[in-house]
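User: Can you predict the 3D structure for this chain?
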Amino acid sequence: MFPSDHDNIWDEHQWEAHLNEMTRRHEHLRELIESGPRDHPRWLIHIRDFPTKLDAVDAYIEEELLLEESYFPFEDEEEDPEDHPLFPDDAEDEDQPIGWEPEEDGDLFEEPGEGEDATDDEEEEDLESIFEDIFEEETREESSFDYASLENIAIYTDARDLSADLLVFNDSKPHYMDHPGFIHLVSEVLLISTKLAAAYSMGFDVEVLGANIAYCKKALERANLTLVHLQGLRENPLSREDFFELHRRLFELRNNIAIHIQETRDLFRSQL
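Assistant: Here is the predicted structure, written as structure tokens:
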């Protein structure tokens, strides 16, 4: 997709423009998906269909990511079967011609000759040493930027947990769900989680790191808008205790997303 020349690698602004254009083009598709009334979003259905609130959140995020994937209609190149190393007919071995098979009377498990055990043990020790060095090196590299798993990204797990806790109000305080403003609040927090998951799905290679940042910026924008929206729910329907707890968590999440964006920008610059 990208040439080796770094001048042709998109930055966050180019990716952001692309995502905005794709969002505009897919607006009709989203309208078809969200065909129900605004006060009955899809995540309300997931609450009934899944055993836990986290499962409902994950199901909603997965649906949203499928729509995001449609923004990138890249097809994998088809592999040429002749180049596949698992095809025995294409194997080229001077000592073992194509179609070679052991003789029926041949012993495939002959006892090693004298001194061979020691050689094998030395080779195994060398391999173990090599793998230990590689593991230690990878551990050092990932210590400050460990993105081996989505669960390692604290801002995502915080947003996901906050979304699930909002859904818990469906059971503990069902009157919240009767308020359109609270319904909108839940939808916005779920979209924060979705944008962060989309950012992670793009990866951390330099070619797509700009898209990662662009999605995180969209999550940050959602967090800012949600904080403003939350103020309107301070006295109705939220209780004082619930309002301050939600505000604290959302405020911390917003700040941590901003910090994460700066760290990812630094990573992008370091790879150019």
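Residues 73-110, 137-144 have pLDDT under 50 and may be disordered. The chain has nine helices and no strands.
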